[in-house]
Structures are given as structure tokens and as C-alpha cells.
Write a structure and sequence with these properties.
Length: 525
Amino acid sequence: MKTLRSYLCGAWVEGNGVAQTLVNPATEEPLAEIAAAPVDWARAVTHARTRGGEALRALTFAERGQLVKAISKLIHGHRDELIALAIANGGNTRGDAKFDIDGAAGTLAAYGEVGIALGKTKFLVDGEAAQLTRSVRFVGQHIAVPRRGVAVHINAFNFPAWGMMEKAAVALLAGVPVITKPATSTALVAARMMELVVESKILPDGALSFVAGGVGDLLAQLDGQDVLAFTGSSDTGQMLRAQKNVVAQSVRVNVEADSLNAAVLGRDLDRESEGYSLFIADVLREMTQKTGQKCTAIRRVLVPESMLEAVREDLGERLSAIKVGDPAREDVGMGPVATKKQLEDVRAGIARLREEADSLIGGDGSVAEAIGVPKGKGFFVAPVLLQVRDAKSARRVHEHEVFGPVATIIPYSGDADEAIAQVARGGGSLVSSVYSDDRAFLGEMAFGLAAHNGRLFLGSSKLAGHAVGPGTVLPQLVHGGPGRAGGGEELGSLRGLAFYLQRTAVAGDKPILEALFHKKPEDAA
Ligand code: NAP
């Protein structure tokens, strides 16, 4: 059986501790092992900071953009192999796996282009120079330069490819070396991507390091030039950002945590409208893609009372038709959740939601027989659609993220203020979507929801067939959300670089500042 290794200080490191077995979640067949490695974390950090950091900072944004683009091509070139690994280790259908692998390659390509467009410069000029006193000589200019530390990236199990590469793309482009750690249970895809990057020699030594297994006392080695970007559960995020050394050294931290994303149906859309069909298609996809294990999945579905019967019928019919089983089979529409622990958590979560909601489809999530799988094997759960009994008093639906194919209908009057108040009860979300052709309603909802969400998706009839749904994280748009969602922000094209750069205000003599910071890109230092 394959043992996954770490790649630190420019060399592969074998683990020798107690091994954890990675399995195929459909068959429970063992696939690989990860064991903790005896790592000198201080040395690993120093190697990344010095070798990797110096080499990256010696390059211009355009040159770093070319490196990031080359990694995109590399991943795309090994697409089929990576898809096969995601199906085996992630419980992904082929469509789910493509979403992850293509998302990784696409985000790398997009950031490659961002770097190339920035040109032959090694720092960014932020805004215009400002005259600071009555003297025209004394001006201030903000600039942004790469931090001289390392970026530690800790990722969740659900997107082993996209999660690793969307973070790495931005850090590498900013000129900051990366130590990346995938979640252990689904690490096969990330480990193979790392092997490909190392074999390709695209990156300078120390620019990208990889941790298979635990991070030991890595966070205790970080200082004020380093950053920590985490994606995963709120509990782990809170624990990591509160680490003594992280707090003491003011390590910059970004947390992408869980989220109770909402979809709101406007009362103007009738059952025959394109906007209504878009709403149904989006809810269905977001509930079942990756077996609902998406941080952006729709968990709360706000439906006007007048449309309840139609929505229950249309969603119910389509959810009941989804075939659950071995995702390697083409006739299967939804695979298992990623781990046994995930399955236990999802079942317990459904039970908690049912204290205040009735199950309309899927009961408690049990699957009598998963297609193509030996009886009793695999971590399967059926799609479950619930409806709260009393929208005013229900709390669980706004507090508890069930990370599986589970969503709950919350009836409302159709009034914008009521919908906004309900969505806000989620305590901060990554994304919410509104479906309507009524511009006044969309406007009220957008301004009412914006403060509670990192991203909004306004779905209207004319948009049908032209848009990806709310669950797709795009490199051009920010990803992250306030409150429960972690309070973080990633991506968003140039905006994503800010986390890895130090913005510095420089005040001085105008001609000197102009000469230093406003050279043509080709002359820049
Ligand atoms: P998790 O249990 O919090 O684990 C996330 C990562 O943290 C894993 O790599 C895990 O490593 C690592 N970790 C756990 N304990 C650690 C420690 N003491 N020190 C250092 N690292 C540690 O979350 P998960 O179950 O993988 O992911 C599911 C959650 O992630 C869901 O709640 C979902 O909403 C959220 N999520 C959010 C986003 C977003 O962008 N906002 C995206 C995807 C998922 P091991 O696997 O080795 O334990």
C-alpha cells in the first residue's frame, strides 16, 4: 500500500509514527497510509523562508505568473489521473471530481494571467500619492511588497485539489513560499499533485512544501512575517487562530469556516418561469454535488408560502430520482460522504434538524441499498429535504451546518425584510442567492443581505443558461464571509494578494517617491 510522504526542506520525508489509513469511502477498501514524520519544523520553516522566499522575491509578478500558469497546465495535463484518484479517495462522481480538479487548474490559470498583467514589477503601488501638508513636496504613497515569511495553508477534506491550489496560486504569485497541508482523509489527490510539481521542477527550491499528516509544532515556529490560511470547521479554525504563538507574534490569519448558505425564492416567480427553474436546478445541484460536502452548498431554502407546494413537489421528485452508490459507476448520481466520521456527523445533524423540522424526502438519510457496493459497505447517506415546523422559533436550521446532502425549507411571506432577517440568523454566510425578476425586490435583498454574506448571487429568468450557480467559487470574486463563515476573504483577483503582501505607507519628497514608485514597469527594481 502506498505511504504518502511529506516534502520539506527540498526532500521527501517518510513518516514513521502511527499510520492512518486512507480508504475508498464507497467500498471501504484501503488505498494509502499517512504516518507522522519526525520533522524539524523550525528547519522546514527556515528553508521555505530563505530558499523559497528569496527565489520568489527575485522574480517579477509576470515571471511568477508564468510559474503559476505552468502549474495549471501541469494539473490539466494529468486531469484524468487526478479525477480517478478523486473518485477513489473522495467518493466523488466523475462530475464532482472534475469540479475539483478543473477548479484547481482554472484558478491557477486565472492567477497566472493576473501576474502576467501586472508585468515586470516586484511591488505594487496602491492608489495615488497624497499631498500631506500645504507643501506640494511632502507626499505619501502606499506600496505593497511581499512579506518575508512563509504561508502555512491548512485545507479541508472536501476540495483536496482546488483548496490546495487556489491558496498556493495567490501566495506564490505574491512572492511568498507555501507550506501546505491537506486534510488527511482525502489527501491522495493533493499528494499526487505535489509529486507532479516536484517532478516538473517548475518551482524554485523551497517555494512549495507539503505536509502529509499532522503539523506538529509548526505554528509555534511562525513569526510576524508569516501568514496562516485555514479552511475547515469553525472549531478547528478558532483553535488555530487562538494558538499562543500565533497571537503573540501577530501572525496574519485567514479563516474560511462553515456556513449556512441560503437561497431565497421571490414570490413573483411562477412555476413556469425560467427563474423558478433556475432556482430548482441550483438547489438540487448544491444539495447533491460532492454529496453536499461543499462550504458553499445551499442549506436553507426560503420559499414563499404561496409556492411551498410546488417547490416541495419539484424538488422532491428530482431528489428522489437521484441514484446513490459507487461514484465510479456512470449511472450513479451521488456518491458517499468522505469518511465514517462524516457519515456519523451527518446522521447526527439530520437528527438535530428533525427536532424542529419534518423530513419531506429522505427520512433520516438511511440508504437501503447503495448501487454497485457490497451490502453494508460505504459511507452513504440519501439526500434529505426538510421543512421547519415553525419558521419563527426554529433555531437549529440557523445554527447547525450538516455537511452532507441536506437542506431545509423555511416558509416565509414573500416579504423582503422577513427574508433578510431569516438569512441574517445564520450568523454570517459565504454566499446567499435570491431568485426573482422583480428588480425592486432584488435591490432590497441585495442591500439587506450584503453585510451578512461574502458573496451574493442574483438569479433571474434571463440569467438562466448563462451563469454558474452560487456554489461555484470563482477566482475573480472574493470567497469568504463574516461571522460564522470565519470572517476571512480569499481570491477576488488582485484583492487576494493583499493577505500575502505588506502594505506600507511611505511619506517623503515628491520627486523621490515618484522616481522610486512610478517607474515604467520594465524599469522597476
Ligand atoms: P476540520 O476537521 O476542521 O479539518 C480541516 C483541516 O484542519 C484538516 O487539514 C485537518 O487535518 C486540520 N487540523 C485539524 N486539527 C488540527 C490541528 N490541531 N492542527 C493543525 N491542523 C489541524 O474540517 P474538515 O472536516 O476537513 O472540513 C469540513 C468543514 O470545512 C466544514 O465545516 C466546511 O463548511 C468547512 N469548509 C469551509 C470552506 C470555506 O471555504 N469556507 C471550504 C471547505 C470546507 P487532518 O485532516 O489531518 O485532521
